[in-house]
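User: Quick one: structure for sequence A, then sequence B.

Assistant: Sequence A:
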Amino acid sequence: MSDIPDTPPDQVADGVWAIPVKIPSPRLKVVNSYAFDAGDGGLVLVDLGYSDDRSLASLEAGLAAIGAKVEDVRGVLFTHSHGDHYGLAGIVQERSGAWLGLHQADVWLVEQIAGTRTEGGGLRETLEVAGAPVPESEGDAPGRTWTFPPPLPERILADGDRLQLGAYEAVVHHTPGHSPGHLCFEVRDAGVVLTGDHILSRTTPNVAAWPWTTTDPLGDYLQALSAAERFGDGLLGLPGHEDQMDDVGARAREIRDHHEEQLRAVIDIVGDGQATIAEVAEQMDWSRPWDKLTPMDRIMALGEGNAHLRLLETRGQLQRTDQRPELWSRVNGGALDR
């Protein structure tokens, strides 16, 4: 990652900056952290970066470019608890005493990473249920170690909450899908909406279901996309990755149309027989051919394929067997409404 130059912060409104923070991901490269002037010589940030020395150095450089430092951070809001957004929470809080804000539905993931909660399965269960090859040892499984234990948030955020960010008021919107507790922050006075990983400018965010998932993540996500069309109207979209968006509503519609196309493809892949999650995922349309995906990308694709199957089950169009691997088939030979 050291060969990727630091990009200077972009002032997107009076007292609001976008700070690209480098992360150890060859595809995404940076996560966008957003800084709000808190009005007391400090800052409130939204999202941070990985638990990684290079991410920390990149965040420090971005803050220095706007005349600030980590110790000036008064609080941090998180769109969600994935490592590339929440990873630096511990070290930032230790150095600044900042409060942390997160939705309750994402607290469980922080607890798992911190080792205080063990519900849910793992890679082996995911692969067995999907009908995919299982590695001979856990050492074959891709993963990432956090270098600083993540603390739990002090402030639990909920849909409709209003937060004061210096001169601006932010409205909290619960937008589940990419994670159960994903949040967007509408800051209308500043003319922006922070979309996290709910809406990205070029790619479609990963929305996955796992064997232990009890909800319908893709159904929740599509419903939240419709809401985003309304609260993002007329605002500059500030995503967790990639580029800023002039028309959040239009991009939300594009992503929704993409998923409906994927759903039609899934029903065709299942056909008149039975198919495993792995067989479906391998034939879905991804940004690269299946044999070009990394092991982690394939696992994410299994989760996303499963989410599409689950939504079709919710719609009454597909059914699954209660076995390992799961076998999916059409309900009464029915076809997807077109």
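Sequence B:
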Amino acid sequence: MSGVGVFGGTFDPIHHGHLRPALELRQALDLDEVRFVPCRQPPHRAAPVASPQARAEMVELAIKGVKGFTLDRRELYREGPSYTLDTLAALRQEMPDERLVLLLGTDAFLGLPGWHGWRALLELAHIAVAHRPGWSLEDGTGLGELTRDRLVAEPGGLAQAPAGRIALVAVTQLEISATAVRAAASAGEDIHFLVPEVVREYIEKTGCYRQR
């Protein structure tokens, strides 16, 4: 069964801390595609600094030429809060038999009970949690009820169904913060090696994080 990963976020800006784990998840889960889905209006945090168009353009530049990486702009065109549930529902309607995998970092997964319609997410997709080696759900996640019967022993366990299971995938964790990147760019500091070179050039050229 082929598979599509769904990787959402503000990507304000996209950086190597997003890109490397996404690549490792695609490989570990044997996904044909990872869709980067920039959100327009995050429900649980302040509005992004860069415009929707700028963030989408930076994602497009960052993933150009990377096998299996694509940009999905649907949330940028949708009014109101960018709920992941709505995005997965739309994708499921388009791909009723596809294996969909929602790709989350550990912090996002631990905050899942605060998401809109979070219990329904697994009716639409699997969830793959990118974590650092040695981390486990026993670290006090508050998600025991959800994961007790859903967790697979190996990432390959997601290949047996189109949705409904949870996998933990150890990936390289790059401690890069989009907040820190924005602050450095705003202050005119060098952001080489934090973001792809094409993204650094875009930020410098457009001044999208320049102090106003």
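The chain has a mean pLDDT of 92. Residues 94 and 203 are 34 Å apart (CA to CA).

User: Thanks, that's what I needed.
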